[in-house]
Design a protein that fits this description.
Layout lengths: L3 H33 L5 H25 L4 H11 L8 H24 L1 H7 L10 H4 L4 H18 L4 H17 L22 H7 L17 H5 L25 H18 L3 H9 L13 H13 L1
């Protein structure tokens, strides 16, 4: 990796710029919600801050085990393992964008459809509301392992230039973060004609909902492309307000319940398993699955709702 040192410098510049833009607005939004609208739950903010601390403490441990496994380093590893690399011409940029968006959709879909991965992703959905601090609330394994694999390694493995992969990740971080703008500050969140092809806060509020119609929809964070192609696109309906959160009761201000409550529930189910098939089902089937009963999964709940409307 002779290109590593200058590459790493450019990566740091890009990431620092993206984080500065997001963090600056995050602080402003929290101040407005607390002092102007009086709608900020400080226990939730404390929980998200503990999440940042947990990630900071876990980072050196993950780095010691896996090496510097950031999106940039993972992208370099993916490029070295790839049989081809598309250039940075205009068609290469279009290709890179489509590939990156696909792997974003795929990892997000898997995170909702595989229970073990849902345990890692669920802290992002557990709080019963939405604002930028909640948008930045992730389990440490997601940002330190899961995201670099899909956004860096897999994207570059499919021929995307590593620098372009990182640039797209920064764009995704900025645009995706602003999808979590509070509905107190941006009530409609539709962005007019832009919402016909780009993800908007309205689309992402659907994604954070636990309503049977909305749950497990709108997986992308920049465009609507793969949600449209793969049938997971769902508009926000004026007649059906969003109910934020996940289906189990959650103490939204508890770091342990938000970040590890789903792992605890999974462990309880694994202890009740009656054989290897049950163990595998609990680990890799959709959240809500029980042996011989998939009626409480998101897909089943949505199917019953739509069947009732048709019938």
């Amino acid at each position: 990796m002779d290109e590593l040192t200058p590459f790493h410098g450019r990566i740091n510049d890009l990431v620092s710029l993206g984080l500065a833009v997001v963090f600056g607005y995050l602080v402003v939004e929290l101040l407005l919600l607390h002092f102007f609208w009086r709608k900020l739950d400080l226990r939730v903010v404390r929980m998200t801050m503990l999440g940042f601390v947990g990630t900071a403490l876990a980072s050196p441990i993950v780095a010691r085990l896996l090496g510097p496994f950031t999106v940039g380093f993972a992208a370099l590893a993916g490029a070295e393992s790839s049989f081809f690399r598309v250039g940075t011409q205009w068609y290469g940029l279009i290709y890179a964008f489509v590939v990156y968006e696909f792997f974003y959709w795929l990892q997000h879909w898997l995170a909702h459809k595989v229970r073990l991965l849902w345990c890692i992703h669920s802290p992002h959905h557990a709080p019963g509301g939405i604002h930028m601090a909640i948008g930045a609330n992730h389990h440490f394994l997601e940002g330190l392992v899961y995201f670099p694999f899909f956004f860096g390694f897999m994207t570059a493995l499919f021929g995307v230039d590593p620098m372009i992969a990182v640039g797209l990740n920064v764009l995704d971080t900025v645009w995706g973060s602003y999808l979590h703008v509070s509905d107190e500050i941006l009530r409609e969140g539709r962005y007019g004609w832009v919402g016909r092809f780009m993800q908007t806060p309205a689309h992402h509020r659907v994604h954070h909902a636990k309503n049977p119609r909305y749950v497990d929809r709108n997986y992308n964070s920049i465009t609507l492309l793969w949600d449209w192609l793969l049938g997971t696109l769902e508009p926000l309906r004026e007649s059906e307000p969003v109910e934020y959160g996940i289906t189990r009761p959650v103490d939204h201000g508890s770091y342990w319940d938000v970040h590890f409550g789903e792992f605890a529930a999974l462990c309880r189910d694994l202890r009740s398993a009656k054989g290897p098939a049950d163990v595998l089902g609990y680990l890799f089937r959709a959240p809500g699955w029980q042996p011989g009963d998939a009626s409480h999964t998101a897909s089943a709940l949505r199917a019953r709702l739509l069947a009732g409307e048709r019938g």
